[in-house]
Amino acid sequence: MPHSELTLSDVMRLLAQNEAHARRTLSMVPSETAMSGIAKLPMMLDAYHRYFFNESDNPAGWHFRGAQHLRDLEMGLTVPLLEELGRADYVTVRPLSGLNAMTLLLATLGGEPGSTVVTISPENGGHFATSSVAQRLGLRVEYLRGDDPHSLDLAHAAELLARTRPSLLYVDQSHCLFPLDVASLVATVRAASPETLVHVDASHWLGLVLAGVFPNPLDEGADSFGGSTHKTFPGPQKAVLLTRDREVERRLRETQDYMISNHHFAATISLGISLLEFRDHGGVEYAHAVVRNTRRFGGLLTERGLTVVAADRGYSSGHQLWLDPEADGVPAKVASDRLFAAGIRVNFMAGLPGFAGQGVRIGLNEATYQGLTGEDFTELADVFAAAVYDTVPAPELARRIAALRSRAPYGAPIGSDSPLFQDALELCADSLRTTTAAPQPADRAELAHAGGGQR
Question: Which of 49, 146, 384, 454 has its CA 20 to 30 A from that of 307?
């Protein structure tokens, strides 16, 4: 059996080094984003360790009592805010991730084994895992397709739906520059196969939907929607499902009770804090800025000689841009390596719709959340292009990115001089003081050295 040589000192040193690196660099991975320090706080506290099941506050239902005093942080904060911002009558916060939400939804609404579900072809942006998850549940899978990577053929959809009569249409845009026309798709479903339920996985669009920048799928006629809470929405790594249909809600609750036990209660509280910040401290402005910055950045990269997909359509309607550096003579992995050395994290991959080889996905969501505005993006584009083409030494580019990264987080409403912020720091300190494995004096000295002596 392998034996780890790492000590607690090693662990703390690596964590400190990563934090220092994160403060100097900029993440442009579109499927990730940051959240505020206050929203991270529950992960540090006792709530992290506790189950919570008694949503109705039944006096006889507190079989697990560790979260009893915090019930309102889920049922009086997170759930009502999701219902409000998502314009939904029912919400579940049980899913742990986008893929976990997909599995729960397919298991609930996909029908009995042998039933047919229809989803989006990967060539048109569908998630790579949807068909595999559905097939593991005993479901048959058919694909909707289109003439280009960004749209669907509704005539083909009508024929397929009428012929297969699926239990569920799972709209899963994973690789997406432009949102599908959900209203037209739902109308096609209702005409061709009225009994088919429609679910929209809005993982990438969630922040834009909750801010009203993109249409709400429920308003467009979908039976349910949801997805992960850490892409355009600046929240924890978790997922949610929303509906206005009482029967859909009943079926989801029935299924989730045996599919998901610990739903990570602390993350649910973090989500509530993130939603409260989003509603009351600039979420709408942030979401509009994401779209504006994404389109502008696509143009800035094009001006600097990089090949950005869909330039003829304005590059993107959301937070993602797709780059084809191989068309510019630079392999995608090499471009990613050079950008990483310059302090920019991107996502290179195969399988992007319309790409024969590998491409690079970038997102402007976290850069916007971190506070970049105006001419910051001109500087970022200069660094980005110089890194890809290797025209400026990486250390110099990394210094310029560190200067950009020093911006205060856009979405953090609580200043460091606020009493609320000071209370949060004291809670963190109390939590650390209660540890049973506190570093010994020599370890503390090593940790201080690893973190540059900063506290």
Answer: 146
